[in-house]
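Marked as duplicate of an earlier ticket. Keeping the data here for the record.
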Amino acid sequence: MEMIKASCRIDRVVPVLSFFFLLAPAVFAGAAGSTIVIDADHQFRFAEHCFSTHQYDRAIGEYQRYIYFFPEGDKVESAMVGIAMSYMYNGRLTEAIEAFEAVLKKYKDTDKAIKSSLWMSECQSARKDFGGALLTLQNTLMLSADPDLKDEVHYRMGWVYVEMADWEKAWRSFDKIRNENRDRYLLEKISAEIDRTASLPQKDPALAGLLSIVPGAGQAYCGRYHDAAIAFLLNFGLAYAAYECFDQGLNGLGAVISFVELGFYAGNIYGAVSSAHKTNRSVTESFIETLKQQTKIQLSSASDDEAGGKKIWLSFHIRF
């Protein structure tokens, strides 16, 4: 009986196993057919899509994935530029500068590298690293013989010097632009505005300090009347308190108050000098901002073929 039962079980199992082995190739073939394979073009296009839709963090990752899986791909340079631009548009300027430097180090004088150097100088200026921006632009001059590019570089350098309030060097840079591009860059208007810097209202820090022999007078000279009133009342109050102490024979307390008053008096003079510098800086910054709004042409550069979903373009936006 046991032999018969075993035989029956085998008779049932064998057809099931046979059906499984017959079906298995089709199942595995179907599974293999559903596998998604991303090639270099699809990967790069997806990275560009992320960039163009302002998903900059994701774009950085997708560009990096392209470079990792396709290191010999023909869009590696564009991907590197895309990474740098994504950092820049995301406000991560330090990382953007490092990424642009990586492009320049690897590709040196290609069109994308030249555009990267211009973007890098913008990032450096935004970080107030004016020395770095000028050095980058100087290096850019040596990367290309294109006269239009050189004019653009001189224009950018001029504005870096404007940000530094170095008017002489600013105009020297603007003046290097060729005649055929002078109207394009509004140089006549810029020149007229820079000439006005000689008449900007400025406060003399030395005079402010001298006037502060009378507490508060230096601050009043700088137009800081609230600070002037505080300085006068504080110094007058302490001086009067010290006088009363000495008059009543409280010499120890009078000496302590006099010592404190001496510190406030010196601070009053230092504050007046500082106020003059702050006033001058405020006037200069206001002038620079007005100059930028009225005359600065915004230059936007992307890479030559495709980088970060953009073609090479130069746009000029004049603010009124």
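See parent ticket for discussion. Residues 1-10, 13-33, 302-320 have pLDDT under 50 and may be disordered.
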